[in-house]
Amino acid sequence: DQQVKQNSPSLSVQEGRISILNCDYTNSMFDYFLWYKKYPAEGPTFLISISSIKDKNEDGRFTVFLNKSAKHLSLHIVPSQPGDSAVYFCVAGGTSYGKLTFGQGTILTVHP
Amino acid sequence: DTAVSQTPKYLVTQMGNDKSIKCEQNLGHDTMYWYKQDSKKFLKIMFSYNNKELIINETVPNRFSPKSPDKAHLNLHINSLELGDSAVYFCASSLGGGTDSPLHFGNGTRLTVT
């Protein structure tokens, strides 16, 4: 039962262009969403988050958009840099205290 | 000065053995977690502890037993290892236990059961 789905296993983008990573969720009880980034042989690191009372949160080159009615969120990276190449996990929380549900991840490759 | 460190990094063992994975955090966080990343790459929570008290205990076989001697340590002991236990296990910590408290992960322990 995949409550958080990242339907694109991979995404390839040219340096300087925009990267858009998408995520859909099924559980309407989710009220907090996060994106984590993971490099090979390392643990995931927190990137950006958004509460369900907002529809947008921006932090430098990273912006997360939330569309609650569509149960959809996206992460925009502008401009993309080769160092952004990593696996990006969409994560949702709120169904029970402290419990986070991870998506399967999207491999982003940014070409120089 | 690693924030969340777990050992060993790799663990290869045979079915039926008992093994432990250790985790330590030097961030002063109150909550620690164990996550399992399966072959399909999903990260799923197994346990969380807040100040040595068990908070989350997902549907995990009782062969898995977490132990938190103090709030900076959360170890995972696995009895009678099975092939299906092969996965990458991540330890994490957070300042609070709510979902709005970002997790800090260790670099993972790749467990291979043969």
Give a structural overview.
The complex is a heterodimer of chains A (112) and B (114). With 112 residues, chain A is an all-beta fold. Chain A is globular, with a radius of gyration of 13 Å. Chain A is built from no helices and 11 strands. Chain A starts with a strand and ends with a strand. In chain A, a hairpin with a 6-residue loop joins strand 4 and strand 5. The model of chain A has no long low-confidence stretch (mean pLDDT 95). Chain A has strands spanning 4-5, 10-14, 19-25, 32-38, 45-51, 56-59, 62-67, 72-77, 86-93, 100-102, 106-111. Chain B is mostly beta strands and 114 residues long. Chain B has strands spanning 4-7, 10-13, 19-25, 31-37, 43-50, 53-57, 64-70, 73-78, 87-94, 104-105, 109-113. In chain B, strand 7 (64-70) and strand 8 form a beta hairpin. The model of chain B has no long low-confidence stretch (mean pLDDT 92). Chain B is built from no helices and 11 strands.
Strand content bin of chain A? over 45%
Q: Termini separation of chain B (Å)? A: 34 Å
Which chain pair has the greatest contact?
A-B, 25 and 26 residues
* CA(first)-CA(last) distance of chain A: 38 Å
Overall number of strands of chain A: 11
Largest sheet of chain B: 7 strands, mixed
Order of helices and strands of chain A: EEEEEEEEEEE
> Major beta sheet of chain A, specifics?
6 strands, mixed
Alpha-carbon Rg of chain A, integer = 13 Å
Radius of gyration computed on alpha carbons of chain B? 13 Å
- Low-pLDDT runs of chain A: none
Mean pLDDT of chain B: 92
N-to-C SSE string of chain B, H for helix and E for strand? EEEEEEEEEEE
Helix content of chain B: under 10%
Helix count of chain A?
Answer: 0
Oligomer state equals heterodimer
Poorly predicted runs of 5 or more residues of chain B: none
- Overall average pLDDT of chain A: 95
Count all strands of chain B and give the number: 11
SS class of chain B: mainly beta
What best-fitting shape of chain B do the alpha-carbon axes yield? globular
